[in-house]
Design a protein that fits this description.
The protein contains five helices and 16 strands. By secondary structure, the protein is α/β, with parallel strands linked by helices. β4, α2 and β5 form a beta-alpha-beta unit. The two termini are about 20 Å apart.
Length: about 270
């Protein structure tokens, strides 16, 4: 007998390093295994051997929804070769590709989706024009967007300062705990000594944290969350965190056909 139902399909793209220390390569493999445990279908992008390991940080290249991908623009040169390649890759994975255009600038790390709302921060990296372009793209796609000003918090990247935990709950940086934009969200504030732990990855199954953030792990467990710890110290030393190492597509519904004698066939 054949039965049909739907399931949420999560996809994460990673750029595997082709050079670097043995420890760095091992940690990247462990990171990919953690994504799989969290329910992601992990897909590797090509990474030329002459690219430095820091080019594994790909999350700031695009803002993803379930229907559009908006390619960021972080400098006056516009789309570089790397961003153009990323755009081509995404073209077959989403319905529409949009690009931030001059004079707009947008770093995708200044964007965070919490509770179905895309918060977009004006910072030294993302100017008002670029932020407003993204907000319009999202609005046209039927997504909620809210622009906030974080220029008074130099160095703070929104995607690394708040993590959507589902159920109107979020893991949040102490500096944003009283911010007006997040007043309606139930917040779990990270300990002051572990503010970087806000750059976590959460699904309905678990929260992935860097292994050093033990106090935050204990706090999340006390709130009923399952925590998966993974050591990415080599990448943190290069200036990136958990979110930066992958570009994750929001969950999309996939049809599942169950064939009694032949296992599963997934139709996306």
């Amino acid at each position: 007998m054949t039965q049909q139902h739907t399931a949420a399909l999560r996809v994460a793209y990673v750029r595997k390093p082709q050079s670097g220390s043995e420890k760095l390569l091992y940690q990247h493999d462990a990171y990919c295994r953690a994504l799989v445990c969290a329910g992601f279908d992990v897909r590797a992008l090509r990474h030329d051997a002459d690219l430095p390991p820091a080019r594994c940080f790909i999350s700031d290249t695009a803002v993803m929804t379930d229907s559009i991908a908006v390619i960021a623009r972080t400098d006056d040169a516009g789309l570089g070769n790397d961003d153009a390649a990323m755009s081509a890759m995404l073209l077959g994975k989403t319905y529409f590709i949009k690009c931030i255009t001059a004079p707009g600038k947008l770093d995708a790390a200044d964007v965070a989706c919490v509770g179905g709302v895309y918060y977009i921060a004006v910072t030294a990296r993302s100017n008002r024009t670029g932020v407003e372009q993204l907000a319009q793209f999202l609005d046209d796609a039927g997504q909620k967007a809210e622009i906030i000003d974080l220029s008074q918090y130099p160095g703070l990247r929104l995607s690394g300062a708040i993590c959507d935990l589902g159920g109107n709950r979020a893991l949040i940086h102490p500096a944003l705990a009283r911010h007006y934009a997040f007043l309606g969200i139930e917040k779990i504030v990270v300990p002051s000594g572990e503010t970087a732990a806000c750059e976590a990855l959460a699904t309905e199954n678990m929260v992935i944290l860097h292994a050093d953030y033990t106090a935050t792990a204990d706090l999340l467990k006390a709130h009923g969350f399952t925590v998966f710890s993974v050591n990415i110290s080599e990448f943190i030393g290069l200036g990136g965190g958990l979110c930066a190492l992958s570009l994750r597509l929001p969950p999309r519904q996939a049809n599942i056909t169950v064939l009694g004698a032949h296992g599963l066939r997934r139709i996306v």
